[in-house]
Structures are given as structure tokens and as C-alpha cells.
Design brief:
single chain, 333 residues, alpha/beta, Rossmann fold, Helix Hairpins, five-stranded parallel β-sheet, 8 helices, disordered C terminus
Length: 333
């Protein structure tokens, strides 16, 4: 992490606060005194807040979470944009859109609309519309790009938010507190420190002061991101090495010429030879002939039984016919 020096903060005019008539009494613990009509900020409190913020940001980014930079002042936009490009984190430099955090699903739908408009511009689909419709679509694209391009790569709710002048960005602070997102605020003497989790008292109006403070925080975010990348690379290499050294699974092995055993049956061999000294043809035909003889012998009793049953069934019919003939002869005159 970057070493902090009070002299560097003095050179950047971090110790100058707002006019006495605009101060917030809750900022009294962070003040060193006053000079004329301007309050002087205690730089020891500034360094204490910077150290807390550096430690917190380093560990948070090392875990893989994102940081949202927020600053919509005209003189601060460039600094916030540079910090976002340097750290690869989402930023908000234009007007804070209500629901950016609490209604993030709608924000994602607008970003999908931006991607749709860009694809229409690239593949030439806009040429099919009229000039008025093309102008309307391009104006919609510019508006979405201006307001939401900074959070285009924000996958979800960030882990923390760095706000320049929380008094001005009160909507962003309220949404972050509602969702439990940690807020790190660069607070001047007119801000309310009770709405911020980590207070960094300092001059939030001067470009030089804001740049000095943001660069210190950016260095911590960069170190945490590099640590996270190294850990991910080590994890991937360990997984690859584990996959290469893994033992082979149960694979079928050749069983030619070996005994094959199955559950509940006697062992069988693939290469078996007849026990008798006869050739294979004789050994094969003899059991077949024996089976044919046995089957013929078994069919003979069955045929005799069927003939006997047929004869027994015909005897009552013959007796009935003889009785009818005798009765007929007796009835004739």
C-alpha cells in the first residue's frame, strides 16, 4: 500500500474545509480549527480514515468483489473516470439514476437495450427505418450510454462504494445503506459523517485534493485485484495438476485365456476342450442323437394315451346307436 505523508496532503490542500457558515456540527471531531471564515481539517483524522479504507478495500477486492466509484461534480468526473479505468471497476460520473442499486434488474434491462441498439448500428438494421426513427434510436442510445455506460460491466450489487461528497450524492448513499453496502466517503466540513461507514475528511472541491485521495485508494484496489488474480491462477494450476495426477478409473481388461467368473455360477473358460478323446464332431453329434432318441421315447407314451382316450370316447356313442336301433324294431307292427 502507498505510504501516507502529511506533507503531501498539505501540498494538495486537503486540509481546507468549507466556510464556517456552511459547516455541519457533526464534523466537529474531524476539525483542527479555523482560519478566518474557513474551517481547517485535522489531517491526522484524514490519515486514519485513509488507512482504514485502504485495509478494507484491499481485503474486499482480494475476495473478488467490486467497488463502485461515485462522483458527479464537474471537477471530479475526470478523476473518477481515470480511477475506474485504472482499477477496472464501475463508475458513476453523471446523474445518479434512482434505483441503480435497489432496482438493478431494470438497469440491466436498459443495458440490454443499449446492446441491442449497438448491434442494430453495426449490422446496418437502422438503414431500414425512416430518418426520424433513426434519429430517435440514436438519441436513445446516446442517453443510455451517457447515464449507464460506467456500470455496464457491473454484474451485481458492489461490495463497497466510494463517494466524493456524500452530501451531494445522498441518493446513492441512501440506496447503499438500504442494501447494506459499505460506504467510504470523502467528506468536507458540510457533510453528515453519520451516513458514511468510513469517513475520510478532506477538501472535496479542489481537483488536486480529490486526485491525491483517489490515487491513494486506487492503489489499494489495484493491489487487492492483483492478489485476487494470483490466487485464482494458483487455484487453476492446482486443479489442473490434480486432474493430471488423478488415478485411472476401473477399465475393462482383456480376459482371453483366463477364467471368467460370474456370481452364482461355476467358473467358465473361453478356451475349453471336450473331456473325451473323440474328435469335436463326434463329441458334438453324439449328444444330439441321444437327445433325439430321448425325445422320440418320450413322445410314444403320449401318443398311446391319446388313442386310448379317443376309443373310450367312441364307446358310448356306439352303445347309444345300438339301443336306438333295437327300440325301432320293437315298435314296428
Amino acid at each position: 500500500m502507498e505510504n501516507l505523508n502529511i506533507q503531501n496532503l498539505l501540498d494538495a490542500s486537503v486540509h481546507f474545509g468549507c466556510r464556517v457558515s456552511r459547516w455541519n456540527p457533526k464534523m466537529a471531531p474531524y476539525l483542527h480549527g479555523r482560519r478566518g471564515s474557513i474551517h481547517i481539517i485535522d489531517l491526522r483524522q484524514t490519515i486514519r480514515g485513509l488507512l482504514r479504507a485502504q485495509n478494507f478495500l484491499y481485503h474486499l477486492v482480494a475476495e473478488g468483489q467490486q467497488i463502485l466509484w461515485v462522483g458527479t461534480k464537474r471537477q471530479v468526473k475526470g478523476v473518477i473516470r481515470e480511477a475506474g479505468e485504472r482499477t477496472g471497476m464501475p463508475i458513476v460520473t453523471e446523474r445518479w439514476i434512482g434505483g441503480t442499486l435497489t432496482n438493478f434488474s431494470i438497469i440491466r434491462s436498459r443495458l440490454r437495450r443499449l446492446e441491442e441498439l449497438e448491434s442494430m448500428e453495426e449490422d446496418g438494421t437502422l438503414a431500414q427505418y425512416s430518418k426520424k426513427m433513426v434519429a430517435t434510436l440514436r438519441r436513445e442510445r446516446r442517453k443510455i450510454t451517457r447515464n449507464l455506460a460506467g456500470i455496464r460491466d457491473m454484474a451485481g450489487v458492489p461490495g463497497a462504494m466510494i463517494v466524493v461528497d456524500p452530501q451531494r450524492e445522498y441518493n446513492a448513499v441512501r440506496e447503499a445503506r438500504k442494501l447494506g453496502v459499505a460506504v467510504i466517503g470523502l467528506c468536507d466540513t458540510d457533510c453528515d459523517p453519520s451516513q458514511v461507514d468510513i469517513v475520510i475528511p478532506g477538501n472535496d472541491d479542489a481537483l488536486k485534493s480529490v486526485r491525491a485521495l483517489i490515487e491513494i485508494l486506487s492503489s489499494s484496489v489495484e493491489e487487492g485485484a492483483s492478489n485476487h488474480r494470483e490466487r485464482m491462477a494458483e487455484t487453476d494450476s492446482a486443479q489442473r495438476s490434480t486432474g493430471d495426477d488423478a488415478p485411472m478409473g476401473d477399465e475393462p481388461r482383456p480376459t482371453r485365456g483366463k477364467t471368467i467368473k460370474s456370481k452364482g455360477s461355476a467358473p467358465k473358460t473361453e478356451d475349453s476342450t471336450p473331456k473325451s478323446g473323440l474328435p469335436e464332431a463326434a463329441a458334438t453329434d453324439e449328444p444330439a442323437a441321444t437327445d433325439a432318441t430321448a425325445s422320440a421315447g418320450d413322445d410314444a407314451p403320449a401318443a398311446d394315451a391319446a388313442a386310448a382316450d379317443a376309443a373310450t370316447a367312441d364307446e358310448p356313442k356306439a352303445a347309444t346307436a345300438d339301443t336306438a336301433a333295437t327300440t325301432g324294431e320293437q315298435t314296428k307292427p
